[in-house]
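step 3/5: co-fold with fructose -6-phosphate
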Amino acid sequence: MCGIVGYIGSADVCDVLLSGLRRLEYRGYDSAGIAINSGGELHIVRSVGKVARLAERVAAEWTDALRAGAKAGIAHTRWATHGAPTEENAHPHADQSGRVLLVHNGIIENYGSLRRQLEGRGHTFQSQTDTEVLAHLVGECYRGKLFEAVSQALKHVEGTYGIAVISAAHPGEIVVARNGSPLLVGLCEGAAVIASDASAVIAHTRQVIYLQDGDVAAVRADGVDIRNLDQIPVDRAISQIDWDDTAVEKGGHAHFMRKEIWEQPEALQNTIRGRLDERAGCAILSGLNLSPREMAAVNRIVLVACGTSLYAGMTGRYALEGLAGIPTDAEQAAEFRYRNPIIGPDSMVVAVSQSGETADTLAAVREAHHKGALVAGVCNVVGSTIAREAARGIYLHAGPEIGVASTKAFSSQVLVLVMLALAFGRGRRLSREEGAALCREMAAVPELVRRVLAQDAAIAALAARLAPASSAFFIGRGVLYPAALEGALKLKEISYVHAEGYHAAELKHGPIALLDEQTPVVALLNDVPGRDKMLGNVQECLARHAPVLAVASEGDAEVASLVPDCIFVPRTGVYTTPILAVVALQLLAYHVARLRGCPIDQPRNLAKSVTVE
Ligand code: F6R
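step 4/5: write tokens
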């Protein structure tokens, strides 16, 4: 939610900021803004819409001389929370004097009372945002030292923030701070880049410092001074980013989503690399840091997540119960955190999150810690807040996911959870042979995904039948029920076709009333437990004249004769089948969105990494 970038150094500040914003645009794209300090004066351009629009405005409004004079600047791409996406509400925001500018990602929860207090002291505001209040607060605390003013101001603030602040009086400094919203500092030779995530700094450096909650830092071209809010210095390690610039390029694909769908064989290979021990019939998950005895003491698992990650969790639940025999729940993270869940020391809470920054999932992690549970993270973004706070976990190693619609993260998450089930299962009821068979099954998945991708053209043809619909159903049973939910989510979020994911058995308890010739049903008929009952449910749909489109296992003649519009995917074991079914559904959603002319990588109203509740 919202992307922040800042730069201090001798390169073209505008270029660095605008190219950084393009990388961060997936975090929010309803408005954008940029500010530079050139010759001791602050200059701002803000605009509604995407970064491309901002870049046009900058080109038109700022002279070459002005740009050349800039040695520092900050920029922001917004996903609106407080106040509509208008130019006034776009960041950066200024303090009362106009000599301090600030960009912010997060939410200032007590901004209402702060604003009233500031207004009482004569401050006037130009926007409806919570951020402007923070800018005014910094300005009010300013006594000649920006670093101290920011630290002082933040002591009055409740909520979450990643901020970057510049001042006309301090051309050689950007002050940044974080609490609950990610921020990192990239260290270059004689320069520094700050950003919400590594994709915006990778073009300049691989050496980064991930700020932690409560940190405030003065970033200068020759180094970084990091302190806590009381201005006491803190030590933060320098980390090395282990992927390169090409990972955040489209690589010849029309969209990031398409690229990421096609990356899945490689991403899955990276997910399992070095983790499958076929000889021992086990999975090696060293990041879990649990001894066999500690694993044996776990009597309950709760998977907490949101959106696609929740559906991956729901899929993993089948594996954890089926393979390890551990009672497992998959729960929406916001529901978990506010429900006062009953969690004991023998419970393990596993937070599943691609970004590792999702606010509700993070809060669930904290709640689980309070309850004394073992807490693990299944994250993709290395060094993310959930990964760090969970303290133990399994990285996906799927590579950066830029498309707002999650794709490769889902398949990697499911594979990680099956590996987790194997690791627990071997300590309980799985034999070495059973474990070895599962290792072989998982090792084969990348190649099987490749075979699903090879059907791209056929899936595109089926998508043409779905594209004119205004509403669709996705149905599945058992391990394919979450896959139906995920298929519906993918379709609705990128193509704006209203889609409902349903358990097939639930259809006749109400939703079947909606079926007619105009309402397609996508049925997941792969050869896993529940398939036979699914055939009956498909008959029920056909009897209501609903066009049915199926995903089924290769060679299933019965399905082929019942449903001519069918995507056949390779056969594999029960717990990895959802991966193949969902890859087919990702392609289906992608092609429907493409045919409907939708902005696939940046669907309306959405943003990646939901850092607000
Ligand atoms: C949908 C999608 C979202 C995310 C959800 C959780 O395509 O991407 O539903 O899955 O916002 O995000 P993470 O996994 O980053 O916690």
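step 5/5: annotate
The chain has a mean pLDDT of 95.
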